[in-house]
Amino acid sequence: MPPARKKQRTFDPARIRTAVTAQFAHVGEAVRELGPEQLARPSGLGDWTVADLAAHIAWIADSLAAGLARPPAALAELSAVEWPFATASLAGKISEAARETLAGAPLPELYERAGARMAEALAANPDARVLDLWIGDMTLADFLVTRTVELVVHTDDLNRAAGLDIPIERQALAACTRLLADALALKAPGGAVEVRIPPFAVVQCVEGPRHTRGTPPNVVETDPLTWIRLATGRTGWAEALDGARVSASGERADLSALLPLMS
């Protein structure tokens, strides 16, 4: 008999909506206070400046509203946990679309407009609405979970690049952590390694002997932000180990060949 398929994690749509809206508002408040010197700093993401990164975050909200303004698709093709693997080929297209959409407007105006459009669109659409997207059609509920990843990752990018301390909503951080942990388990199915990211996620992955009780022989443990940076290529496996931000025990507990999940 084939092994039972793991049940996909579910997220509370109401909490996810609140988390996305609140996280975007946190970023908007901080961006409005950025001075010319901070905006001109390198973001650490290719040739983007901090201003480019901030504009891209505004586009995350604006593009969500634009997607909801298009006619709905008939059937979802992509789940939230599959989304991280569908994004790499579209990075250039997304960047170009963001530049075209947002060019010319001051950042405070971009955030005010994008926030208002997103709020109006979310209020008018149910979670089951299927969006017609470049990466594959997705329900609004699933797509909003992926927005927590975008917003948390780029909030962290902005904090480090501009020397800010923008708060990260706990629910957004939890959803981002769990989605990326589940994506690892999808990429490397199995039960040989237990990956612990307290307090939000524990997943088993990697083919090999499966433990059934007691302490697993192969364990990886880290904190949520380190995990998110590993999963998105902001931090390397060796760097995180050397800095004691990750503990890994057992001969199968090296995840370097599986990371990053997206970059």
For the CA atoms, what is the radius of gyration?
19 Å
* Major sheet size, sense and barrel closure: 4 strands, mixed
Runs in which pLDDT lies below 50 for 5 or more consecutive residues are none
Helix and strand string, N-terminal first? HHHHHEEHHEEEHHE
| Shape estimate | globular
* Number of helices, where a helix is a run of at least 4 consecutive DSSP H or I residues: 9
Strand order of the largest sheet: 4-3-5-6
Number of strands: 6
Structure characteristics:
single chain; 263 residues; alpha+beta; four-stranded mixed sheet; two-stranded antiparallel sheet; 9 helices; 49% helix; globular
Structure description:
By secondary structure, the protein is of the alpha+beta class. It is built from nine helices and six strands, in the order H-H-H-H-H-E-E-H-H-E-E-E-H-H-E. It has a four-stranded mixed sheet. A two-stranded antiparallel sheet has the order 1-2. Helix 1 runs parallel beside helix 6, helix 3 runs antiparallel to helix 6 and helix 6 crosses helix 7. It is globular, with a radius of gyration of 19 Å. The chain starts with 12 loop residues before the first helix and ends in a 14-residue tail after the last strand.
